[in-house]
Design goal:
Structural class: mainly alpha
Oligomer: single chain
Distance between the termini: 44 Å
Shape: globular
CATH class of the largest domain: Mainly Alpha
Number of strands: 0
Helix content: over 70%
Length: 567
């Protein structure tokens, strides 16, 4: 028996002994042996969750704090389900789904995971470049295609080296992993510090903050926070104009933020990481404890602090220059470029596009400057802030310059560490794709494919607010998540898969209630994401067509499996 197998067997026996002793013995053993949940936390607390929390604070203030709490609870429910199935059976989930449930769901889960890995890799490269260009080396790194391509290539090579080191599990890999955790931990601690500082300074209303954790599903279709109060100052026709734009942006951020709590690729990572550790049936309670303490609690605490800090800094707030009635002074605002686009649309809405276009440049500027302050604040809420601007959420604690530096280092660490993990997940997925053992050539190919896809972001998508790519790709990821959630629901109810380990009676009823709640939530979010994309002339019909075709294939898969079972 190898040293690794001896360690697993020792841990298994420790769990069995602790369960017989009960009480504090179980808790102590769980704390000592936890692991995969913290691995999940490493990818959950990435640039996507940071961007989602920051933009939630910008648009909704603290009124949207409930969203990420609900999303992570849904995720933990479904991850607990797949961990229960995997540890009860010891089977690889992909093969178990194909054999016992529906091969269309199994292949859909695998392919969607690969797609999510490659697509989610893009914003990690994007935000890493933004940190280098906006925060760390603004005078050296230029916002040019050549710089983006060259730096992305360097990040890809560095990430590939880390992936290879991870496979060898040497001292260098442990040292680098510790360094990345320290850098990410630094920005996390800074946001905690900001909240403490703002609270001591009397600038936080904790009553409103705690109310923000109460779900309000009306926010799906109407503006919230202080921007909703600004709308009441406007005539009815203008309320409709601003409401439509705010809701569209707010919903995109809500979907993106929810998707970063638990992505479909994370549902693939967890069971395979548990199997690779040698975990089995006695580890089921540890798995649930691990997910709660290692992933859910840190995620809720960190993202809540980011939302609170962002809300206090940006929500319904603008610099004095933007609210000026002097066109020259107004153009000095760093938000003017983004806000003016929305304000021009607002003037075209009221005056007519042709009539406004007929005005001279000076007259147009004068018309924009003459708009009321409330509308300028609404326009500022829709501006997609870049990494430099968002770093000012740390300014109350650190000052502008140090906040910019710390934010940049933290963003770079989050982005780079997530690139590494996404490449590793894709390696696991590619190994299953071709039926090969983990760690071989197929694993390396999968890692390289995800990294190259992410590094191609300058050619596929670009814009002034690099962090916004994290929101866009998260919205796409949310479209894929119901595939995994529905599959896990079927697995938990499969007698042929679980046998005597299938929960019964009240336990099965509770599992189904919780899982159906999560599946419905994922379907609503995914359906909204698809609906919002349906108006796009190219992407809309393609997304709908792919969805309809896949749904038909799933139905056919169930029919074929039913007939085979009957035969």
């Amino acid at each position: 028996m190898s040293q690794a197998e001896t360690s697993v067997e020792r841990n298994r026996q420790a769990l069995i002994d602790a369960q017989q002793q009960g009480g504090s013995a179980i808790l102590k053993t769980f704390v000592r042996l936890s692991g995969p949940g913290w691995l999940q936390s490493a990818i959950t607390l990435g640039s996507g969750s940071l961007a989602g929390a920051l933009f939630l604070g910008v648009l909704g203030g603290t009124s949207l704090l409930w969203l990420q709490l609900v999303a992570i609870v849904m995720g933990v429910i479904m991850l607990s389900a797949i961990s229960y199935v995997t540890l009860s059976t010891g089977e690889r989930p992909f093969r178990a789904i194909n054999k016992h449930i529906n091969p269309v769901l199994g292949w859909g889960w695998l392919i969607a995971t690969c797609m999510a890995n490659m697509i989610w890799c893009m914003p990690q490269f994007s935000v890493s470049f933004a940190a280098l260009q906006k925060n760390l080396f603004p005078t050296v790194v230029e916002d040019k295609l050549s710089a983006k391509v060259s730096l992305s290539a360097i990040l890809f090579v560095a990430a590939l080296v880390v992936v290879l080191l991870n496979g060898r599990r040497g001292a260098a890999a442990k040292l680098f992993d510790t360094l990345l955790k320290a850098l990410v931990g630094m920005i996390v601690l800074c946001f905690f510090g900001v909240v403490i500082y703002l609270s001591v300074d009397g600038r936080l209303n904790w009553g409103k903050i705690f109310n923000g954790f109460i779900p309000d599903f009306r926010q799906w279709n109407q503006p919230t926070g202080q921007v909703a109060a600004l709308l009441t100052e406007l005539p009815e026709n203008l309320q409709q104009f601003w409401s439509e734009r705010l809701v569209k942006e707010q919903r995109a951020v809500m979907i993106g933020a929810a998707a970063t709590a638990v992505g479909i690729n994370m549902t693939f990572l967890l069971p395979y990481s548990m199997l690779n550790r040698g975990w089995s049936k006695p580890f089921r309670g540890l798995a649930r404890f691990d997910l709660a303490t290692g992933m859910a609690i840190p995620y809720v605490l960190v993202t809540s602090c980011v939302v609170i800090a962002s809300a206090a800094t940006f929500h319904a707030k603008v610099d004095p220059a933007l609210t000026s009635s002097d066109p020259v002074e107004m153009q000095q605002s760093p938000l003017y470029a983004g806000a003016s686009k929305v304000l021009i649309q607002r003037l075209e809405f009221q005056q007519g596009k042709e009539q406004f276009s007929a005005l001279g440049a000076d007259e147009q500027l004068g018309a924009i400057a003459a708009l009321p302050e409330s509308e300028k604040r609404l326009a500022a809420s829709l501006v997609r802030r870049n990494a430099f601007e968002l770093s000012q959420a740390l300014a109350p604690l650190l000052g502008a310059k140090l906040a910019n530096l710390i934010f940049g280092i933290g963003i770079l660490a989050m982005g780079f560490s997530t690139i590494v993990i996404l490449m590793l997940i894709n390696g696991y997925a590619f190994s299953e794709l071709v039926g090969a053992e983990q760690g071989g050539r197929a694993h390396l190919v999968g890692c390289v494919v995800a990294g190259l896809a992410g590094a191609s972001w300058p050619l596929l998508w670009d814009g002034p607010a690099k962090l916004w790519l994290a929101i866009l790709t998260s919205s796409f990821g949310m479209m894929l998540l119901p595939i995994a959630y529905f599959t896990f629901l079927m697995m938990m109810n499969s007698k042929s898969l679980l046998g005597d380990e299938k929960p019964r009676g009240g336990k099965m009823f509770l599992w189904n209630i919780l899982m159906i709640f999560s599946v419905v939530g994922a379907l609503v979010a995914a359906g909204t994401a698809i609906w919002d994309k349906a108006s796009h002339p190219t992407a809309g019909p393609l997304v709908i067509a792919v969805g309809v075709i896949y749904l038909l294939l799933v139905i056919i898969g169930f029919i074929v499996k039913s007939r085979r079972k009957a035969a």
